[in-house]
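Example 3.2
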Amino acid sequence: SDLRQMLATKSVENIQFLPFLTTDVNNLSWLGYGCLKQDWTLITVNTIGAALQTLYILAYLYYSPAKRPVLLQSLVLLAVLATGYGYFTLLVADARTRLVRLGLFCSVFTISMYLSPLADLAKILRSKSTRCLSFPLTVTTFLASTSWTLYGLQLRDPYITVPNVPGIVTSVVRFWLFWRYPPGQDKPYRPLHA
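Structure, written as tokens:
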């Protein structure tokens, strides 16, 4: 829906960039973990996810009036990803150790991905407006984090299970924010004091 909104309005107004970026890095990291573990569920889902997130980032960049900050954030996270890839492939020789360390790396990125939409929490509470949050993204995050938590429990893989629990919690917080401050109640103006 965010992509549709960008294409329809030719604008990125009220659409946050950081969730797209962290989700793309997250997908690419989990893709590496899935390849090491030879888990075709992780490989398939994260290949599709990375392709879609890259498309969203390119659309955001195209429609963004401030391209420099978007490019800078993208380059910083790509540098972190490239450094991580170099570390895991060149410096960690033991396959088991590599899997454990990459699992921890992926867990940190997953948690940051799930926490990134709450970066504007103070602004939302001050303005009493959820305009900067995406309801469809909240629903998708809740469903995805719940699914991955259950999948991780089934595999007994703490690197999949543990970082997805915050996704459930932050989704519930965002659902509460949408309930508390419904999008229809937003005021496009500031009342003047007499």
